[in-house]
C-alpha cells in the first residue's frame, strides 16, 4: 500500500466513525469520497459508493426506488436535480423519506469545484417537537413554528458559514501566492492611496532605487524617494486623477534610469505603481541612436573627405607661398587668417574620421591622481586669467586600469566646453570671472568624474541633444563633435555619461567608468616561442606585473615553487607536453591557444582560456577574476 493509499484509507476510517452520512462529489459530479453511514442510510449498492460513481446514476437509482416520492416524469426529476447540483450553491433542506423518517441535508460548495453534503437523521428531533406541540398548553403554535424556523435558519446559517470559511481559506492562500509571486518579480510593485501613501509593496523598491528604506508601508512616496520624487510627482497627480501614466526618471543617487508606470485604482482609492530599472535598455537605445548618427556622418563624409582634403592641401600650399612673399600688413594678416582656417578644417576632418571610424581602448595601469593633476596643469593656461580650475580628488592609493589618453581627451574636452560656456564667446578673456571644478570619487565599483562650471547651464534643447554629432550651441564656433566623442569613449569603456544642471546653477557633466584596481602579480609566463614570450612580457609589464619566463613544460615545473608566484599564463601546446598539465601545481592557471572555442580538446579544459590573438584588456579581464594575493 502506497503512502497516498494509506492516507485515503485513514480518512475513510475516520469518516466511518461519524454518525452522519457524508458524500463529496467533484466538479464533474463524480463521487470523490463517502462514509459507511451514507451507504447504509440510502441502502446504496456498492457500485454507487465507489470513487468515480456518477451523481446522475445515484439520483436515478433513488428516483426509481421512490426516494423522492411518485414521479410523473422520472427522467425529468433526475435532470432537475443534476442541474441544481451543477450550480454548487450552499443549501439546507429537510425531507421525509418513504419509510417515514426525516433527514436534513446540508450542502456546501468546495473551492476546487464540487460540494460536500451531510445527511442527518432528525426523526427523533421532529417527534419531540410534535410532542411538545401536542402537550404543551403554554407554548403557542406561533412560538413553536417560530422555534422550528429558527432551528432551520440556524442550520442553514451553519452551512453558509462553512462555505464562507472555505472561501476565506482559498482567498488567503491566493493572496499568499500573489505576494510570493510579486516578491519574485525584478521590479517594484506597489499601491499608493489618494495621498500618495504606500498601502502595499512587494519589498523590491531597494532593488530598483538603491539605498531607499525597505519598510515603506504608511510612508508617502515623497518621504521614500526624496529628490527623485520631484520628477514623478506630476505623473502621480495625473494618475490619481484617473489618467494612466508611463514616465522615465533618473534616480538622483545611483544614476539609474527608471521607468515608472502608474495605473489608477479602479475603486478610486489611489494608484498602482510598477517601477523597473531600464538603464541597460536606455543605454542600448542611446548606443543604437548614436551608432546610426555616426553611420550617417560616415556616409556624408566618406565621399567628400578625400576631395576636401585635397582642396585643403592646395589651399595650405598656396597660402604658404603667399605668406613667404613681401605683402602689405593687411594682406599678410588675411593670409594668416586663411591659413588658420584651413588648418582648422584639417583638424575637423581628423575629428570626423575619429568619430565615424572604429575605436579601441588601450587600458593600462595609471596613477589616476597624478594623471588628473597633470591634466589640470595642462588645461589652466588655455582658460584665461579670469577662470579658475579646481581639482577635488579623493581617490584610494594604487594604480587603476584605464585608457589614459581617452580619459584625458574626454576631460579636457569637458573643461574647454565649460570655459566656453563661462566666457559666452567661445574664447576665454581676462575680464571673464568664473570657476570650473573637476571632482573625482570612487563610489562602489564606479569611478565618478564630474565637471561643474559656473556658467548659465544647459538649455533644455542642449540637455536633449548635446551628444548628437554636429549639434552645437556655440553659434558657428564649435564643430558639434566634442561631447559625442566623450559619449562614445565613455560607452566604449563600459561607463555612462549624464548631463544636468547643478543645484546652485551652471552645467554639470558626470562620467562614470568601471573602477578596476591593478593587482600587481608575479606571473610565470610559459611559451616555447621566443617572439610570443617577448610580446606577452611587454604586455604584462605594461599592466604593472612582474614576469618569470619558461620555454617548456619541464622548465615551468621547476620554477613553480618560486616565492610570491601567483598565476601561470601558459600556451596550451608546448614542445614537451600540454600546458594544461600545469594545473596540477595548485596555482591559478590561464591557458592560451589559437584553437577555436568549439574545438573538442579545448572544450574539455577546466581552466580559463584566451583565444589568440588577444589584447591587454582581455588578459586583464581574466586576471581581475583571480583571487587576490595574500
Spell out the blueprint of helices and strands.
Elements: H1 3-16, E1 21-25, E2 31-34, H2 36-42, H3 55-64, H4 74-86, E3 91-96, E4 102-109, E5 115-121, H5 123-135, H6 141-184, E6 188-192, E7 198-201, H7 205-208, H8 221-225, H9 229-240, E8 245-250, E9 257-264, E10 271-277, H10 279-323, H11 329-356, E11 364-366, H12 368-379, E12 387-393, E13 400-402, H13 404-423, E14 434-443, E15 446-453, H14 460-465, H15 482-492, E16 496-501, E17 507-514, E18 522-526, H16 530-542, E19 546-550, H17 553-559, E20 565-571, E21 573-574, E22 577-578, E23 589-593, H18 600-603, E24 609-611, H19 616-624
Parallel strand pairs: 12-14, 18-19, 18-20, 20-23, 23-24
Antiparallel strand pairs: 1-2, 1-5, 3-4, 4-5, 6-7, 6-10, 8-9, 9-10, 11-13, 14-15, 15-17, 16-17, 21-22
Task: Write structural notes for this entry.
With 630 residues, this protein is of the alpha+beta class. The protein has a five-stranded antiparallel beta sheet with strand order 2-1-5-4-3. Residues 425-430 have low confidence and may be disordered. The modification 4-aspartylphosphate is found at residue 571. Its EC number is 2.7.13.3. Residues 303-517 form the Histidine kinase domain. Pfam families: HATPase_c, PAS_4, PAS_7.
Amino acid at each position: 500500500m502506497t503512502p497516498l493509499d494509506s492516507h485515503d484509507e485513514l480518512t475513510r476510517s475516520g469518516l466511518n466513525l461519524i454518525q452522519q452520512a457524508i458524500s463529496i462529489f467533484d466538479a464533474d459530479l463524480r463521487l470523490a469520497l463517502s462514509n459507511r453511514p451514507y451507504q447504509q442510510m440510502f441502502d446504496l449498492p456498492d457500485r454507487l459508493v465507489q470513487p468515480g460513481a456518477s451523481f446522475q446514476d445515484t439520483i436515478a437509482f433513488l428516483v426509481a426506488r421512490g426516494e423522492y416520492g411518485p414521479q410523473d416524469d422520472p427522467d425529468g426529476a433526475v435532470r432537475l436535480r443534476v442541474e441544481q447540483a451543477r450550480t454548487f450553491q450552499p443549501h439546507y433542506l429537510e425531507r421525509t423519506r418513504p419509510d417515514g423518517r426525516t433527514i436534513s441535508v446540508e450542502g456546501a460548495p468546495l473551492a476546487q469545484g464540487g460540494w460536500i453534503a451531510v445527511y442527518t437523521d432528525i426523526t427523533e428531533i421532529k417527534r419531540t417537537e410534535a410532542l411538545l406541540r401536542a402537550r404543551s398548553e403554554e407554548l403557542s403554535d406561533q412560538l413553536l413554528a417560530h422555534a422550528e424556523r429558527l432551528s432551520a435558519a440556524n442550520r442553514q446559517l451553519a452551512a453558509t458559514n462553512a462555505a464562507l470559511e472555505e472561501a476565506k481559506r482559498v482567498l488567503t492562500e491566493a493572496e499568499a501566492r500573489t505576494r510570493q509571486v510579486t516578491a519574485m518579480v525584478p521590479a517594484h510593485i506597489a499601491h499608493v492611496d489618494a495621498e500618495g501613501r504606500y498601502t502595499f509593496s512587494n519589498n523590491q523598491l531597494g532593488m530598483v532605487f538603491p539605498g531607499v528604506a525597505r519598510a515603506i508601508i504608511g510612508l508617502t512616496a515623497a518621504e521614500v524617494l526624496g529628490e527623485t520624487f520631484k520628477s514623478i510627482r506630476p505623473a502621480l497627480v495625473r494618475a490619481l486623477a484617473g489618467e494612466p501614466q508611463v514616465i522615465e526618471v533618473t534616480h538622483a543617487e545611483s544614476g539609474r534610469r527608471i521607468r515608472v508606470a502608474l495605473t489608477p485604482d479602479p475603486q478610486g482609492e489611489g494608484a498602482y505603481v510598477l517601477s523597473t530599472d531600464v538603464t541597460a535598455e536606455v543605454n542600448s537605445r542611446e548606443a543604437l541612436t548614436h551608432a546610426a548618427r555616426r553611420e550617417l556622418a560616415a556616409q556624408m563624409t566618406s565621399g567628400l573627405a578625400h576631395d576636401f582634403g585635397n582642396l585643403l592641401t592646395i589651399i595650405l600650399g598656396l597660402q604658404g607661398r603667399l605668406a613667404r612673399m613681401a605683402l602689405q600688413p593687411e594682406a599678410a594678416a588675411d593670409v594668416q587668417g586663411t591659413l588658420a582656417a584651413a588648418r582648422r578644417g584639417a583638424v575637423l576632418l581628423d575629428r570626423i574620421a575619429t568619430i565615424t571610424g572604429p575605436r579601441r581602448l588601450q587600458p593600462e595601469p595609471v596613477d589616476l591622481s597624478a594623471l588628473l593633476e597633470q591634466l589640470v596643469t595642462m588645461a589652466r593656461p588655455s582658460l584665461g586669467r579670469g577662470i579658475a580650475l579646481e581639482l577635488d580628488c579623493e581617490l584610494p592609493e594604487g594604480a587603476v586600469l584605464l585608457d589614459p589618453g581617452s580619459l584625458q581627451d574626454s576631460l579636457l574636452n569637458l573643461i574647454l566646453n565649460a570655459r566656453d560656456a563661462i566666457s559666452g564667446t567661445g574664447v576665454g578673456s581676462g575680464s571673464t570671472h568664473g570657476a570650473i571644478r573637476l571632482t573625482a570619487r570612487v563610489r562602489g565599483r564606479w569611478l565618478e568624474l564630474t565637471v561643474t562650471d559656473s556658467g548659465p547651464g544647459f538649455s533644455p534643447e542642449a540637455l536633449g541633444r548635446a551628444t548628437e554629432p554636429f549639434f552645437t550651441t556655440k553659434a558657428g564656433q564649435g564643430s558639434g563633435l566634442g561631447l559625442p566623442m566623450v559619449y562614445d569613449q565613455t560607452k566604449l569603456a563600459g561607463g555612462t555619461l549624464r548631463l544636468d544642471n547643478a543645484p546652485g546653477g551652471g552645467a554639470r557633466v558626470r562620467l562614470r567608468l568601471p573602477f578596476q584596481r591593478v593587482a600587481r602579480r608575479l606571473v610565470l609566463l610559459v611559451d616555447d616561442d621566443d617572439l610570443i614570450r617577448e610580446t606577452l612580457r611587454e604586455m604584462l609589464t605594461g599592466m604593472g606585473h612582474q614576469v618569470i619566463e619558461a620555454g617548456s613544460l619541464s622548465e615551468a615545473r621547476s620554477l613553480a615553487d618560486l616565492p610570491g608566484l601567483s598565476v601561470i599564463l601558459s600556451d596550451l601546446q608546448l614542445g614537451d607536453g600540454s600546458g594544461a598539465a600545469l594545473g596540477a601545481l595548485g596555482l591559478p592557471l590561464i591557458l592560451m591557444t589559437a584553437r577555436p572555442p568549439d574545438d573538442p580538446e579545448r572544450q574539455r579544459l577546466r581552466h580559463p582560456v584566451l583565444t589568440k590573438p588577444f589584447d591587454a584588456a582581455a588578459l586583464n579581464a581574466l586576471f581581475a577574476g583571480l583571487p587576490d594575493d595574500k
